[in-house]
């Protein structure tokens, strides 16, 4: 954790256990984008040659480039992606190639494929319209978040990919009030919550990951109560977000860092603004059982956090 210009920035000291694509040393130094910048430098000439080979229809050159990234063991995947990027009659095959590369989790390949979208401006942000494998509402960034691929999520965020936040199932706006729309969008809403509940999204897309996790957990609790059809799915997402909050706190280097983290007042109600650790109050209000249990299980943390502070539960 570090303070910059009066703003608290949270820098994980180790990578989350589910993450395989982020170097802990890079994250620890606040240098999480270094690998992307390095790969960008390495593949700049490769990207130009790749684009030229695609435009000229040189299938052998395209295949060799793709296979050099994927490795010899994924020859079938290389053949599929090669055939997709060479089909340039519409953006749809290219979007499917991008989604396939995201599923594989190879950020350099994702970078190469996105370089081909100059012929179809804006299409790289959209889902596939006619794919048998990918629903049209799932965008590249949503898929990368679902796969929890930190490298790919960061790369897409730097290319200005965004996720439109969902309306909760209990929303009563004019659009959501239409029963036909509500039923047809239930899966879309769930998939969007799956994406924004990922560690990759919370860490990389949110200025304040802990506050975002608290608000998301509260929304998911409402979703569990309102959407009976997907109650178990929303409940599992809620459990995952609670586990994420523990991992966020565990990244603090010292007890003073924990105090700074819990004393932040952004998103706090006026009645709680005078508490010494309002984020702890928020955790209790949001029923963050895993996080509060973590504090109880670590006596030194609980003692330091509650010393001189009275909290009424």
Automatic annotation (TrEMBL):
InterPro entries on file: Ankyrin_rpt (IPR002110), Ankyrin_rpt-contain_sf (IPR036770), TRP_dom (IPR013555), TRPC_channel (IPR002153)
Keyword line: Ion channel, Ion transport, Repeat, Transport
Keyword Cell inner membrane part of the UniProt annotation: no
GO biological process: regulation of cytosolic calcium ion concentration; single fertilization
Cell division among keywords: no
GO terms under cellular component: cation channel complex; plasma membrane
Cleaved signal peptide residues: none
Protein name per its UniProtKB record: Transient receptor ion channel domain-containing protein
Native organism: Parascaris univalens
């Amino acid at each position: 954790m570090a303070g910059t210009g009066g703003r608290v920035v949270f820098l994980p000291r180790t990578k989350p256990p589910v993450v395989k694509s982020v170097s802990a040393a890079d994250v620890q130094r606040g240098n999480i984008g270094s690998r992307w910048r390095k790969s960008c430098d390495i593949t700049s000439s490769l990207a130009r040659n790749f684009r030229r080979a695609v435009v000229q229809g040189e299938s052998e050159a395209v295949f060799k480039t793709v296979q050099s990234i994927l490795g010899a063991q994924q020859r079938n995947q290389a053949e599929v992606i090669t055939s997709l990027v060479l089909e340039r009659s519409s953006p749809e095959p290219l979007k499917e190639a991008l989604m396939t590369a995201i599923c594989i989790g190879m950020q350099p390949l994702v970078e190469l494929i996105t370089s081909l979208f100059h012929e179809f401006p804006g299409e790289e942000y959209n889902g596939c319209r006619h794919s048998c494998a990918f629903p049209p509402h799932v965008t590249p960034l949503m898929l990368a978040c679902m796969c929890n691929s930190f490298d790919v999520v960061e790369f897409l965020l730097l290319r200005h990919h965004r996720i439109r936040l969902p309306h909760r199932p209990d929303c009563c706006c004019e659009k959501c009030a239409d029963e036909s729309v509500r039923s047809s969008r239930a899966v879309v809403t769930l998939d969007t919550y799956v994406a924004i509940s990922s560690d990759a999204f919370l860490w990389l897309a949110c200025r304040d990951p802990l506050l975002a996790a608290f608000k998301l957990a509260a929304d998911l609790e409402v979703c569990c109560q309102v959407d009976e059809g997907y109650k178990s799915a929303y409940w599992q997402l809620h459990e995952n977000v609670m586990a994420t909050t523990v991992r966020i706190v565990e990244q603090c280097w010292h007890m003073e860092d924990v105090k700074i983290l819990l004393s932040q007042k952004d998103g706090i109600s006026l009645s709680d603004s005078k508490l010494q650790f309002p984020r702890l109050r928020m955790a209790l209000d949001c029923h963050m059982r895993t996080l509060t249990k973590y504090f109880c299980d670590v006596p030194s943390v609980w003692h330091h956090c509650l010393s001189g502070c009275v909290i009424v539960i």
